[in-house]
Amino acid sequence: MDIFTHALIPYLLGSFFCLDRRLLAPLVLGGIAPDLDVPIAWIGSLYPSDLLLVHRGITHTLFFGFFFALLVFGLASCQPVKAFLGRFISYDLFFSPASLLFLYAGVLLHLFVDCTTTRGVPLFYPWQAARYSADIFSQIEPVALIASLLVLAELIREGPRTQFNKNVLILFVAFFLILGGIRIEGKASAESFFSGQNAEMHPDSNPFSWIALENESNEFLVYKYDSLAEEITSRSAFAKLTVASDAAKAKQAISAAEKLPQIRLFRWRAYAVAINATSEQDGSWAIEYYDPLVRGQMQSSWPAFRPALRAYGSVRVRVENGEARIVEQGKSI
User: Fold this and answer.
1) Contact, 265 vs 272, CB < 8 A?
2) Collapsing DSSP states into helix, strand and coil, what is residue 223?
3) Rounded to whole angstroms, what are the CA distances from 226 to 58, 74, 186, 197?
């Protein structure tokens, strides 16, 4: 879910129950802290490893999530940072057992919301890397984002008030209950439509659209399903393995590529993984790992969104003399 929604949920809840400002601030900070992981992802790109140093990785866990939020809490409490942020927003942060408790409560709210979205989060990492997801909402739910921005604009328009307008929370909760109901009913419709097929259902950005990923023996089938019309609107097929030359040598090259931590991490993040392997004239191999579901979404998405999907949905590897290295992420070979 987007960071605005993650900030509004704890803020509205805390304000509804008349939480003291010194406790409301850590609750909101905990609600957004897991998504402030850009430096973590940057470190992970510079120094690849098997650690989940990516967005929705190590900071989105029950264990590390608290310590990362504590780090953010400490930074936000520093006087230079408070002086800078004070130009835009007023907040009170003080170390106390109660403030740390509400900080972690904000983290738990964040993790709960992200567990309702596709891909989910690795709650119990480092003990297990499995991601937990109810697959109800898309990662960024455009309708929810618009609603959150409208609520935020209304709160800014109202300005500081002695008494919180509780109707704002009631309307916000009602909106999400309606949106969630639409999503749950749509998912049930999609699962019924594809009953008997080896297909997984994942939410699309449209509240009435679902992506079905069917795993066949040699290929992945990606369908877009309209829950209102109860029909398939698009279908794409992607071979699990495409080799443009010697299959035995391709297997050796792929085996070398699989040793890269970037590939293991890509497999962890992807809905599914398909491979294109091509032998070059100099004897090297160009290998592309891509997510067929993301590739299918890219084909039917707006042109403005395709670069982001491409960067998120594929990794290129070059294998020379048995040594593999990442060439460029996100561009087709």
Assistant:
1) no
2) strand
3) 35, 47, 8, 17
> Running DSSP on this structure, what letter comes out for residue 88?
T
Stated pTM of the model: 0.91
Q: Output the CA angle 88-152-67, nearest 5 degrees.
A: 65
With both helix axes pointing from N to C terminus, report the angle between 306-313 and 292-300 in degrees, rounded to the nearest 10: 170
Q: Would you list the DSSP string of 243-274?
A: ESS-HHHHHHHHHHHTTSHHHHHHHHH-S--E
Can you state the percent helix, strand and coil of the chain, rounding each to 5?
50, 20, 30
- Whether 184 is in a domain gets the answer no
**198 belongs to a structural domain:** no
Q: Backbone dihedral region of 320: left (phi > 0), alpha (psi from -120 to 50 degrees) or beta?
A: beta
Q: Which range marks the domain in which residue 76 is found?
A: 3-133
Which residues lie below 8 Å from residue 73, measured CB to CB, with a gap of 6+? Answer: 26, 29, 30, 33, 93, 95, 99, 100, 103
Q: How many domains is the chain partitioned into structurally?
A: 2
Q: Where is the domain boundary, 103, 133, 163?
A: 133
Q: Which of 107, 133, 159 represents a domain boundary (last residue)?
A: 133
The per-residue pLDDT for range 255-280, each reduced to its tens digit, is 999 999 999 999 999 999 999 999 99
Mean pLDDT computed over every residue of the chain: 91
